[in-house]
UniProtKB/TrEMBL annotation:
Pathway(s) per entry: Porphyrin-containing compound metabolism; chlorophyll biosynthesis (light-independent)
Occurrences of domain Light-independent protochlorophyllide reductase subunit B-like C-terminal (ranges): 381-425
Function in brief: Component of the dark-operative protochlorophyllide reductase (DPOR) that uses Mg-ATP and reduced ferredoxin to reduce ring D of protochlorophyllide (Pchlide) to form chlorophyllide a (Chlide). This reaction is light-independent. The NB-protein (ChlN-ChlB) is the catalytic component of the complex.
Protein name (database record): Light-independent protochlorophyllide reductase subunit B
Originating species: Ceratopteris richardii
Length: 430
């Protein structure tokens, strides 16, 4: 039998809700399983909000149950410990991130009290308040449970996601502040993690060294577009701008409910922000900006294929290929190495496209025009113009094609010839 049954209402009717609650009460009295009516309205919130609320409701239910039955243990663990809230099996790189978080905490002497919802038993949730503090790696799931634990049980939580050198250092600093609040009374000493941060930055993470290398400096002036959930999109935007010196033309998220936090995080780091669940709008924005690389979800990866722009996947929704067998965390100091590789390898570097053309290995299919929407395009390329276009190195071909079509549209030219291409080039150079 299952330990817990969660009933999810599919209607907003208050009468039906009351009937369901009566059913839950009766089922609870007869069943050996715990039965909960999910307090979520799927007509008003998305699946991330629903998961966040359901996790909070489950935590609340079992802590209240333990309190009523007298099994709630409020004593803190002897040594500093933390709960990790929000790790799930289908989450993007969650298993890798969880392993890295464990390593990140264990070396400074922080033990793991519980990890939820992945890998924990319902009967053990009563021991959640024993941890010194809570960690919420991803805002999308776990934030409501952490807020509940702080309000009801006085447990502080860390919201900074340790993605990137700067955020990871800030994450460790926040841990030291929380631990030192209890240190004198519980472990009779203060902790200082400055040396740990320094050693990890120098010898585990190669991102700091790479950011000063000539390879990374070659990315200066490149433009990128970022889109994903709020946690990853904000973190990658910060890494691109602050740690790698790459311009972010547009940063966006589909987490509309977290728009205020996201705008605050990326303020001053990008030219524009876009908060939308419409992938077509995102596609049109990327086509208009025409960045050198995209960092987004599987949807942005498809957009990049259509526009001939490389894309690094940083967030759900994802494809099965984004669940690698090798160890590729995004969190912590090892995560900084993985992200640096992802960012660097996502750009078309140097003359690689031109060399592929020379050796006959380049895919010479045409790139798309300005918009990915279904608007009609009345501009045609002559055979000679298409031949001339194919002679242009691949890493600039898309931009030249787009600029030529914009020039033709502005001058009411329906057929692009070689002469039109040269005229567009002269106009752009003037």
């Amino acid at each position: 039998r299952p330990d817990l049954i969660v009933l999810t209402p599919t209607c907003t009717s208050s009468i039906l809700q009351e009937d369901l609650q009566n059913f839950v009460d009766r089922a609870s009295s007869y069943s050996e399983s715990d039965v909960i009516l999910a307090d979520v309205n799927h007509y008003r919130i998305n699946e991330l909000q629903a998961a966040d609320k359901t996790l909070e409701q489950i935590v609340r239910y079992y802590l209240d149950k333990a309190r009523r039955e007298g099994f709630l243990n409020r004593s803190l663990t002897d040594d500093p410990s933390a709960n990790i809230i929000g790790i799930s099996t289908p989450g993007f790189h969650n298993q890798h991130d969880c392993r890295e978080l464990k390593r990140l905490l264990s070396e400074p002497g922080i033990s793991i009290n519980q990890i939820i919802p992945e890998g924990e038993f319902l009967k053990n949730l009563k021991d959640l308040p024993r941890a010194w503090f809570n960690i919420v790696p991803y805002r999308e799931m776990g934030l409501m449970a952490a807020n509940f634990l702080e309000k009801e049980y006085g447990m502080p939580h860390i919201l900074t996601t340790p993605i990137g050198i700067l955020n990871t250092a800030d994450f460790i600093v926040q841990i030291s502040k929380i631990v030192n609040l209890w240190s004198f009374s519980l472990i009779e000493r203060k902790v200082n993690y400055d040396l740990y941060v320094e050693n990890q930055t120098k010898f585990v993470s190669q991102a700091t060294w790479f950011s000063k290398s000539i390879d990374c400096q070659n990315l200066a002036g490149k433009e990128a577009a970022v889109s994903g959930d709020a946690t990853h999109a904000a973190a990658i935007t910060k890494i691109l701008v602050r740690e790698m010196g790459i311009r972010v033309s547009c940063s966006g998220t589909y987490c509309k409910h977290d728009a205020d936090w996201f705008n605050e995080q990326v303020q001053g780091l990008c030219d524009e922000t876009i908060i939308t669940e419409d992938h077509t709008e995102i596609g049109d924005t990327i086509a208009r900006i025409e960045p050198s690389a995209i960092f987004g979800t599987q949807m942005e990866r498809h957009i990049g294929k259509r526009l001939d722009i490389p894309c690094g996947v940083i967030s759900s929704p994802v494809h099965i290929q984004n669940f690698p067998l090798g160890y590729r965390p995004f969190l912590g100091y090892e995560g900084t190495n993985q992200i640096s590789d992802l960012i660097y390898n996502s750009f078309n570097l140097g003359m690689e496209d031109h060399l592929l053309d020379v050796f006959g290995g380049h895919d010479t299919k045409e790139v798309n025009i300005k918009s990915l929407s279904t608007e009609k395009n009345n501009i045609h390329w002559s055979y000679d113009a298409e031949s001339e276009l194919k002679k242009i190195p691949g890493f600039v071909r898309g931009k030249i094609k787009k600029n030529t079509e914009v020039f033709a549209k502005q001058n009411n030219i329906s057929t692009i010839t070689v002469d039109v291409m040269y005229a567009a080039k002269e106009k752009l150079s003037s």
